[in-house]
Specification:
With about 140 residues, the protein is mainly alpha-helical. The chain contains 5 helices and no strands. Helix content is about 80%, strand content about 0%. The relative contact order is 0.17.
Length: about 140
Amino acid sequence: MNARGQLPVALVVSAGGAIGAAARYGAALLWPTPAGGFPWTVFLVNAAGCAVLGVVMVLLTEFRTAPNLLRPFLGTGVCGGFTTFSTYAVDTQRLLSTGHTVRGLCYFGGTLLAALAAVWAGSALTLSLVRDRAERV
């Protein structure tokens, strides 16, 4: 597909990314992390975003009637803009470089485990619910 054919995808990813990033920024404003503190907001945003991504991907791959642009809008755009693994990396580096080694390592490993567990749980639960519903119909 040529670049012109990708324009609608780029536009929906951009729109979704703006929505996701604004939601993440709002969460950071509502629940700021004190200097040297555990970055709970980013931790929870990343875990929640991964769980939502698991749900979205199951729903959009199990139901073939979803519009073509919904997956890039929700998955890459909204969820990609909401989660922030670059901030996670900077927060980890900041904690480690300021002497909060245990906190930094817990954040580093805990975020990875929470993100993987969240996407697995979101997709597994959704897949189970979708299958149960399909069997009842």
